[in-house]
Amino acid sequence: MNFLPISINIEDETILIIGGGKVAIHKIESLERFTHRIKIIAKEVVPEIRQRSFIEIVEKEYEPGDLDGHLLVYAATNDSVLNSRIREDGKARRSIVNVVDKPANCDFVSPAIYKQDNMTVAVSSNGENVFAAIHWRNQIRDLAQSNQIGTSKTKKIFRQEFQAASQKS
Ligand SMILES: C[C@@]1(CC(=O)O)C2=NC(=C\c3[nH]c(c(CCC(=O)O)c3CC(=O)O)Cc3[nH]c(c(CC(=O)O)c3CCC(=O)O)/C=C3\N/C(=C\2)[C@@H](CCC(=O)O)[C@]3(C)CC(=O)O)/[C@H]1CCC(=O)O
Ligand SMILES: NC(=O)c1ccc[n+]([C@@H]2O[C@H](COP(=O)([O-])OP(=O)(O)OC[C@H]3O[C@@H](n4cnc5c(N)ncnc54)[C@H](O)[C@@H]3O)[C@@H](O)[C@H]2O)c1
């Protein structure tokens, strides 16, 4: 597998998660730092999701038409066959689908994220080793939090340092 890291503008998107259990909570914890436009479709939804009033919740069985109008979709049910079918349904609609139990069958995978204001680090192992991705993210987070990478400098100072370094090389 070879996944391309990009940063997507999701201002006009509602992100759809099919499934409302433990893994859906994980996805929400990552997403809510970037957007509150999140919709859950699931037969049953756990209280940790229900208590977030910004989430639109629809309790029902999944149907392919649920994907209509959604660019980003997480297939996060506990039914592996269904999760793969959701990706197939997404193809016809140009939705890109994260299949939480099958990295090789994903249009995108969720990186391990560290976010500090406008700075974001997203680490992925190409879906091969999520624990390595989490470990790298934690190391980078610790560096940033100990201010070893100058997180409090302004754009102007970073530009001057960048230009000075370019002239040297
Ligand atoms: C980084 C993070 C982002 C997020 O989810 O937002 C994320 N998983 C997180 C947590 C986490 N995942 C797992 C545990 C242990 C649970 C336990 O065992 O108790 C924990 C820790 C926990 O639960 O605390 C297990 C697990 N995960 C996957 C499988 C299936 C497999 O690998 O086959 C299995 C079973 C593996 C096994 O047991 O062998 C699959 C995927 N998980 C990915 C991302 C994608 C790869 C990213 C990459 O390219 O590296 C990928 C491929 C698909 C996807 O989901 O996108 C998030 C960090 C949250 C944070 O700390 O910020
Ligand atoms: N990617 C990851 O980070 C990661 C981590 C751990 C586990 N997993 C895998 O993720 C999967 C989901 O695990 P979980 O712990 O969240 O499961 P869970 O049992 O907590 O939740 C499953 C959810 O899917 C819903 N659902 C099932 N069938 C449905 C249908 N037909 N229509 C609508 N909703 C439906 C249920 O109502 C429930 O809300 C498992 O297969 C697990 O192996 C992935």
From TrEMBL:
Lineage top rank: taxon: Bacteria
Uppermost EC category: oxidoreductase
Pfam families: NAD_binding_7
EC number(s) reported in the record: 1.3.1.76
Keyword annotations from UniProtKB, A to Z: NAD, Oxidoreductase, Porphyrin biosynthesis
Keyword rRNA-binding attached: no
Pathway: Porphyrin-containing compound metabolism; siroheme biosynthesis; sirohydrochlorin from precorrin-2: step 1/1
The keyword Lipoprotein is assigned to this record: no
One MF annotation (Gene Ontology) recorded for this entry: precorrin-2 dehydrogenase activity
Reactions catalysed, as given in the entry: precorrin-2 + NAD(+) = sirohydrochlorin + NADH + 2 H(+)
GO biological process: siroheme biosynthetic process
PANTHER family: SIROHEME BIOSYNTHESIS PROTEIN MET8 (PTHR35330)
Name of this protein: precorrin-2 dehydrogenase
Organism for this UniProt entry: Carboxylicivirga sediminis
